[in-house]
Amino acid sequence: MSTAPRCLADEVATRVRKLIEEQQLEAGMRLPAERQLAVQLGVSRNSLREALARLVSEGLLLSRRGGGTFVRWQHEPWSDQNIVQPLKSLLADDPDYTFDILEARHAIEASTAWHAALRATDADKEKLRLCFEASQSEDPDLAAQGDVRFHLAVAEASHNVVLLQTMRGFFELLHSSVIKSRQRMYLVPPVFARLTEQHQTVLNAILAGDAEGARQAMMAHLGFVHTTIKQFDEDRARQARITRLPGDPNEP
After folding, report:
1. Tens digit of pLDDT for each residue in 159-200?
2. Helix axes 161-186, 189-208, angle to 10 degrees
3. Which one of 39, 107, 214, 244 is most buried, counting C-beta atoms within 10 A?
4. Is residue 235 classed exposed, middle or buried when 0-12, 13-18 and 19+ CB atoms within 10 A define those classes?
5. pTM of the predicted model, to two decimals?
6. What is the C-alpha separation between 179 and 89, in angstroms, rounded?
7. HSE, side-chain direction, 13 A CA sphere, residue 48
8. How far apart are CA 11 and CA 17, in angstroms?
9. Which of 73, 187, 91, 199 is nearest to 140 (CA)?
10. Which residues contact 144 (CB under 8 A, 6 or more apart)?
């Protein structure tokens, strides 16, 4: 490939990044259709395809055959490694500390939901709506990413920088396990339906300015998530034990 096409693809990729930032597209949200996006950017579809392919390879975008191109979850690094490093060490030594962090999230997210209901701006509310819609994707990966982004959007709407940074730190620590757990939950229709209902209740309370309702709804939601993840883990451990059981000695 010549240098000129490569430079053009880089320029288009930069413009796509800028568009994502300007339109505040969150994880799980779909980019405009290829034809529409090419016209919007004033570039050829071939140049756009190459630029999108680069952004996919960089991990910024996620492409689904026949389903479009979506923004992929990008977790933001914790700003103080002196604080987060001890927690990383604890998790490395004993994965059960994950549940301690989940318990801590109960207290923190109850507060972020409370403050979000009192402080959310119109822009915050629109972002919450968009993140909620993203979490309704039929693709478990995209739905899980939208789910995580919804919780961070609640923290952003609280306008408390300490709560927001703490939430970002927790999600950095738990990024892989949180996404995987939510993917599993979105694969089970009854659980998916409960998650949707609970997110809707949290969203409605924040939009209505009902601080106590938002706090209670978030607590109920996190309790359900905690119980469901624990049940998944127990089921997986039970299946592992079954596969290790010796066979029937009377069988040939």
Report:
1. 998 888 888 877 776 665 566 677 788 788 899 899 999 999
2. 150
3. 214
4. exposed
5. 0.65
6. 21
7. 17
8. 10
9. 187
10. 178, 179, 180, 182, 183, 185, 186
